[in-house]
Amino acid sequence: MDERFKIRWPVLFLGILAMFLASLSLTGLWSGKRDVSHVEAAEEQLLDQPFIRVIGTGKVTAVPDEAVFTIGVRTRASSADQAVKENARKMQAVIEALKKQGIAPADIQTQGYEIQQEFDYPKEGNPRPNGYAAVNRLKVVVRQADRVGAVIDAATRAGANEAGGVLFRMSGEKEKVVAQQALEKALSQAGAKAQLLAERAGGKLGKVLAVDEEPGQKPPVVYREMAKYEMAQQPASDAATPVPAGELEYETQIRVVYQLR
């Protein structure tokens, strides 16, 4: 082959690589810069200027207004078919009882369904079959947390014989209000800290240059799991099962950069 037309592969490869990197640089896809927060970006621009960076924390305590719990029906019979039919009858009655308590259909969701063969375990010999069990569990949302005890009682009277833990939480609307209150407290604390630091440094606090908010923290209050079957065996009473909601603490943090004059 003529030497003029021989392909010099190393040279060609390096040329293509250079063009590729140049195109990335032009489009901003290969810039070598990491993502930074607003606070960090402001600090980079103020490296030759005095500034103050503070962290403010805001905490708000509130009573939860919603509750989530699980309720179940367990039935036993000599055959799987009988256990399933009896379970379906009782669970339908439980669902109707929940609706009468004002629980919307959208707030009633199947949590799990099981059919199990049961066994006796004698001290001697092999396990012996002893019928079948069908278990159907629901997750229920109560939009009024102070009514969760009455709702559980109604489901129990209708045939429910299992209950799980109760989780209290804030509704979306209430959470927005509480989050706003926590943010205001965080901003106030940050401003007070910055003002104190500026005075101690012999300067004056300038304008806010950047603010970053950290995600809010709202740990749920969990009511301990109730003993299975226990509720169905309790005598009827006019008083609802007590399920105190307690309180939730919502916390948020902000980072603020102030100009120091």
Task: Explain the layout of strands and helices.
Layout: H1 9-27, H2 38-45, E1 51-62, E2 66-77, H3 80-100, E3 108-120, E4 128-142, H4 148-158, E5 162-169, H5 172-200, E6 205-213, E7 221-223, H6 230-233, E8 248-260
Antiparallel strand pairs: 1-8, 2-4, 2-5, 3-4, 5-7, 6-8
Helix pairs in contact: 3-4
Pfam families: SIMPL
Transmembrane segments: 12-30
GO biological process, one term: DNA damage response
Structure overview:
The structure is a single chain. With 261 residues, the protein is an alpha+beta fold. It folds into two domains: 49-65 and 170-222 and 246-260, Protein of unknown function (DUF541), domain 1 (Translation Initiation Factor IF3, 2-Layer Sandwich); 67-168, Protein of unknown function (DUF541), domain 2 (Alpha-Beta Plaits, 2-Layer Sandwich). The protein is built from six helices and eight strands. The chain has helices at 9-27, 38-45, 80-100, 148-158, 172-200, 230-233, and strands at residues 51-62, 66-77, 108-120, 128-142, 162-169, 205-213, 221-223, 248-260. A five-stranded antiparallel β-sheet has the order 3-4-2-5-7. A three-stranded antiparallel β-sheet has the order 1-8-6. A hairpin with a 7-residue loop joins β3 and β4 (128-142). α3 runs antiparallel to α4. The radius of gyration is 32 Å and the shape is elongated. The termini are far apart.
